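Case study 2.
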Amino acid sequence: MWARRFVGNLFNSRTPFAAAPASRMLTPVKQQTRNLGNLQPRRRKYKKAQKGRVPVRVGGSTKGNYLAFGDYGLRVKDGLRLSAKTITAIHAMLRRKLKAIKGLQIWLRVFPDIPVTTKGTEVRMGKGKGAFDYWACRVPRDKVIFEMSGPSLNTELAKEAMRQAGPSAA
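Prediction:
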């Protein structure tokens, strides 16, 4: 309902739409980055979600199973649900291990957008779903969750960093 009201106000405004000046049209678009300390969606239609299942890829789908941005990646072996806290811990471990490399880029290929709720221990049945606890994402088998590249990043250093960050995801 609010969307209809907004669109109506936008199109029914008294001021006509003016063309943007040429100087504003040629400005490059700045890519938006998220702060990894705050991995949560900006807004969500419903504040609670059902549990759901980790998707099982059948039919030969390879979406997210390959490196798209970097030279090295961290891939999960089994489908699992990663919390935002776990993703942040893996990212911090990679940054700490590879701090000395100039121009290092790390890409996050998954995003926690599912709200997980919990009820307290020894609480009787009923009385609603429970309070929000943390954000999580469902990661299917063989999905790449982190990618990294850098001008002076060698294979041994990348493997060592990924080996140390890997158990955090399990």
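The two ends are 43 Å apart (CA to CA).
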